[in-house]
Amino acid sequence: MMTDERSAIEIRGLTFSYPGAPAPVFSDLSLAIPRAARCLLLGANGVGKSTLLRLVAGKHLIRPELVSVLGRPAFHDTDLAGEVAFLGGPFPFSADIRVGEILAARAGVDPARRARVLGILEVDPAWRMHQVSDGQRRRVQLLLDLERQLRVILLDEVTAELDVLARADLLSFLREESESAGTTIVYASHVLEGLAAWATQVIFLSPGRLRCCAPISAVLQPGDSLLALCERWMREDRRALPRR
Fold first, then answer.
1. Strand order across the 38-42 sheet
2. Closest by alpha carbon to 47, among 83, 16, 75?
3. 164-190, pLDDT tens digit by residue?
4. Is the pTM of this model over 0.90?
């Protein structure tokens, strides 16, 4: 399989269905995300954003040539687990254990990086996991992946439980990671405030098709509203759906 060395993620002619589903989530989907991009993954509920992230994260068995990450097959190259993080869904870690104890058992982490991420997320090592709030639990989940140096970060609505300041600090950290370390970030979110200035790329999924995969500068003119654009596209998609 020939790959573009400028791309961190490539999808070529992907058709994917869940067992028993009446229709595929994706049919002949192709796209590429450049290395070091900060890519927004947008679209209405149910269009396949989480599925796409999980495919890139290697969580579904597919043919090797359909999805590649860093030039390697997403599912079949197990070494990618050390370079790619998928953050999303529930984090059901509720054992009676302190965060500090969890961290102490994780070897090979740069202490300076860990301290920085602890500070950005404002995680207290004394927190006990069976007593934390949903927002605090999400911060711990983020910490356990972001304290590692990663090459691809996949975020699936992980900021919904964070307060405004924590979200802003996290986005600032991720921007620095992409600019200084070349980390590629794909971020699925319905909370769009401030993201037009943060992102470099946009992917918009419509039901059954890819509507947009382009630099954000090609999608939005100065002064345009990302929220208004997404709302317009979602309304168009809704009107195009068969009436029941």
1. 84-88, 152-156, 184-188, 38-42, 201-206, 209-215
2. 16
3. 898 999 999 999 999 999 999 999 999
4. yes
